[in-house]
């Protein structure tokens, strides 16, 4: 999904990683694998990057990182699932009801800041970017390229910040290493699938992706309270 849409890996991987690992471990594994994906794809998509958006997203994200690490330190698993699920569900509804927003330098900075906060705290930078780009009806090629380039920066900064502040462990790096061959298989398939998507199919996939993930997280959280 990450290769073919520019989104998807973190949003889809996080719920499943939470079934196997502690929140901090799941987030760092997600970030490591997402960083591998961004590094692997950046040379292939660099010609399609919107560098004006990228620069402002990057600057804005720097302001969001410190607030994100504060959330990361005090993370509670139930609160985490509930928060992410709610954010994704609201995002899905806004997209389905054709929410639209005009781009501007100040909004670029704000979206970057929110993405920086979400990446460092829960390892999921995509929702603000997804809503912003879908609302502006940006072409799928530009969306994919610009978001992947931004991820390359924010994932690296977030991982480094988390390691410095809270540390890491052997399980995180071993599990990431085991997953990398499967990630590369997904990258190969995603590149093939991408050429079959038109803009309408692209948006439908985004809706399904966000909707299913948000419902899963909210349902799982509800079951935990029962």
Automatic annotation (TrEMBL):
Location within or outside the cell: Cell membrane
Pfam families associated with the record: TauE
Family statement drawn from the similarity comment of this UniProt entry: Belongs to the 4-toluene sulfonate uptake permease (TSUP) (TC 2.A.102) family.
PANTHER family for the chain: MEMBRANE TRANSPORTER PROTEIN (PTHR30269:SF37), TRANSMEMBRANE PROTEIN YFCA (PTHR30269)
Cited InterPro entries: TM_pro_TauE-like, TSUP
Superkingdom classification of source: Bacteria
Residues passing through the membrane, by range: 6-22, 29-45, 57-75, 82-101, 113-133, 145-165, 171-189, 201-219
Keyword Transport: yes
Keywords for the protein's UniProt record, in alphabetical order: Cell membrane, Membrane, Transmembrane, Transmembrane helix, Transport
Lineage: Bacteria, Bacillati, Bacillota, Bacilli, Bacillales
One of the record's GO cellular component terms: plasma membrane
Name of the protein in its database record: Probable membrane transporter protein
Membrane topology: Multi-pass membrane protein
Signal peptide (UniProt feature, chain positions): none
